[in-house]
Amino acid sequence: MNRSIERVSAPVQPGHTAGVSREAATRVLIGNAFAFNLGFYMVLPYLFSYMQADLAMQAASIGLVLGIRVLSQQGLFLMGGWLGDLWGYRPTIIWGCALRAAGFLMLGHSLNLYGLLLGAAFTGLAGALFTPSSQAYLSLLHPDETRRRQVFVWHHWMSQAGMLLGPLVGLWAGTHGFRTTALVAGGLFGIFMLVQWRLLPVETTLSGSAKQADVPPDPQAGAWRGLLRHRTFWLFSLWSGGYSILFQQLYLAVPAHLQAQQTGTAPVTHIFTLTAVFSIALQWPASRYLAPLLGTARAMGMGLMLMGSAYGSLLVLEPGRLAMVSMVFALLFSAGSVLVYPLINSEVARYAPSVSRARYYGLLAGVGGLISLIGNMLVGAVLDRSPHGPEAGLWWVLCACGVGSGVLLWRHVHRQSVGLLATKAV
């Protein structure tokens, strides 16, 4: 019998123990969201300057290393999800921690391009392993839709906190050199690996939620055929890709706009910090009050529209008033992000059979990565032709991307919800 089917079909152990184990697994997985981002953002923001200043590498080589890191993660999410379904979520997460520890150590202590490329590949592959399995594990633990949304809200909140604190810890560790930062981050992921091994329960005893009412059965005999032919989920992933495009421009188009004002890198750091702070502050009010008021479909659509309007604000705000520009942009962008992102992750469970759920999360992330790669290439080409900073047309396009993808995602989720209610009524 297929190992993944054996794993999800095992009955829940009755009594108090199963409930305690389920809550223990939830706490570990939510804690991972903070810990993994803390370690990741300790290193990545400073990798470019390390390779440029300390190793005197050319821009093409630096771009290759950074590109391999992105490609090995975004391009392998589907494979990572498949391995999670095959091996089990717990061992896949543990292997991901081990690979990221090794990758960071190699990045910090390799003096040649080949060692850096291998370290970048390990670092990216690690994310491709533990991200889909962590998300699938969380969704499997909580079949109740309301509880599942709350859990993913916590997950997103903790990841934002890690994203905020990671660069600060990396800056502190970096006073002793980048190698020290990489060593500390690698050591942290080694500790995270031991924490998973010691505290994260095996999902075999927690899988009673596998046969849930809101998850449709696999439409095909094979899990792969079911995934590849699942047209509604492909459309959901495609429309959700608007989030990936808009999020990635926080690291490409926005820095180009701010640096065109010839004010150094301080405004870039400022807007990143503001975005993280607003996300942390707004997550709970948005998820507890606004999202239930709007409903799932409308909240997801409005979230993308708000993110698009953040780029639209750059059309009307005076460029010289950087403090005001940063504040308005960060507020709109964060408000949209905290609305849509946890709901996207929670909604996957509506489409994904339990035996192949990690693959669905992997496909969602992979489609988002491909869309963001295409978007970055197009935006990069536009920026290359605009030596004095992004033209207004770019902000119009990004604003339209947010509004358009928001409308399409709202219509798609709304139709699926109406169809599901009709099916249950019958």
UniProtKB/TrEMBL annotation:
It holds the Pfam family MFS_1. It is found in: Cell membrane. PROSITE patterns: MFS. It is a multi-pass membrane protein. It comes from the Bacteria. InterPro entries: MFS, MFS_dom, MFS_trans_sf, MFS_Transporters. Keywords: Cell membrane, Membrane, Transmembrane, Transmembrane helix, Transport. Residues 25-426 form the Major facilitator superfamily (MFS) profile domain. The chain crosses the membrane at residues 29-49, 93-111, 117-140, 152-174, 180-200, 233-254, 266-284, 323-344, 360-381, 393-410. This is MFS transporter.
